[in-house]
Specification:
2 strands, mainly alpha, 12 helices, two-stranded parallel sheet
């Protein structure tokens, strides 16, 4: 790998930390029921910040159907500002990586300009033109990601920029489609995908971090399987949260409502698309469907825990990987404990938020290992 700049990896690590903060704060916003506290996008009650003074709040209440909740609006809009800052940081990383590519700077700046122009067009309700321009920008980035190699990180940064732009679109749909579960779940996955891409980028760009091991090929296969299982479990967690099914079993654990296999409805539990226009705040599923979601999340947790436990033990007994094996073991145990605490203690806000942070840290360890593990030459 050729570093495009001597400070490139430092900037990448700043992006990793910011992405982690955004994921955790986004979970806090969602779990504190502030996801719809700004009824418009990307502004909040027509403002770049949020209504604070009494006159501003009165004006907002007169012009929007949803009344201002001063304790929540700042959370949603501040989260958007953090996400915009991360997008700018990823753009800078992409420009640095692409500057030596033929027409690299021009193509990235052109794609960014198209996306930037689409935002005020969307605000002024020129929706079709805004969508066309945003799609053109994403297409340019996709074309660059396909034609560029990753020897200078230009491909990886272009993909990260694509993902963070689409993540902004998902954030818009989260508001305009009234917390539609498939969008909320996809928004969570998009945030963690951005975090994972930046983690891979930062580790790969940092000199001297490669882990050369004879067991690397076998261990990498186990880690890839673990990553797939973990992503599926995160998706189930997002589906559980967005359908308000976290407490579907009450405070019972390991049983559910006093039974090992209570009445459930898996058919209704996993209907992905229910149309547009329904307000999903508070959830729309009946108890049986929510129980089915909770049961699926618990069953998948057992599978993920078992697989990652095997991986952690394998690493602990491998010289040179013991430290990361212990960290992985501690994280999976902590994540299970937090999941159980969510149920037993009635979903405390800090525990539920920490549960999302735990999922992100597991991704950090697994993706970081995949980025660095190498077999001896």
């Amino acid at each position: 790998m050729n570093l495009p700049s001597r400070h490139f990896h430092r900037l990448a690590w700043v992006a990793v930390l910011l992405a982690f903060a955004i994921v955790v704060f986004g979970a806090f916003v969602r779990l504190s029921n502030a996801g719809l506290s700004c009824p418009d996008w990307p502004t909040c009650y027509g403002r770049a910040t949020w209504p604070v003074h009494a006159d501003d709040i009165a004006h907002a209440n007169a012009h929007f159907e949803r009344a201002v909740e001063t304790s929540k609006t700042w959370r949603e809009q501040f989260h958007r500002h953090l996400a915009a800052t991360l997008g700018l940081l990823i753009l800078i990383l992409t420009l640095i990586a692409a500057r030596r590519r033929p027409q690299g700077l021009a193509s990235i700046l052109g794609a960014a300009a198209l996306v930037a122009i689409s935002i005020p067009l969307y605000i002024t309700q020129h929706y079709q033109l805004a969508i066309v321009l945003a799609l053109c920008g994403e297409t340019i980035l996709l074309f660059n990601a396909i034609r560029w190699s990753n020897t200078d990180f230009s491909r990886l940064t272009a993909i990260a920029l694509m993902v963070v732009i689409f993540q902004a679109v998902l954030g818009m749909w989260t508001v305009t489609w009234l917390l539609k579960p498939v969008v909320v779940m996809s928004h969570l996955l998009g945030g963690l995908a951005t975090f994972s891409l930046l983690t891979w980028l930062a580790w790969s760009a940092t000199p001297g971090t490669a882990l050369v091991q004879a067991v690397a090929p076998k261990l990498r296969r186990l880690l890839w399987i673990g990553l797939v299982l973990l992503v599926l479990q995160i998706a189930l967690g997002g589906w559980t949260s967005s359908n308000y099914a976290a407490l579907a079993c009450g405070s019972d654990f390991p049983m559910c409502r006093g039974q090992w296999w209570p009445p459930h409805d898996f058919h209704q539990a996993f209907v992905i698309w229910r149309g547009i226009g329904v307000d999903y705040e508070g959830g729309v599923l009946d108890d049986a469907a929510r129980v089915a979601i909770q049961l699926a999340h618990r069953a998948m947790a057992v599978l993920v825990f078992g697989h990652l436990l095997v991986v952690a033990i394998r690493m602990i007994i491998t010289p040179g990987l013991r430290y990361w094996g212990i960290i992985l073991l501690l994280l999976i145990c902590a994540q299970v404990a937090l999941g159980i605490s969510n149920v037993v203690f009635g979903l405390p806000l800090w525990v539920a938020t920490a549960h999302t942070a735990g999922a992100a840290l597991l991704l950090f360890v697994i993706v970081g290992l995949l980025a660095r593990l190498r077999a001896p030459e």
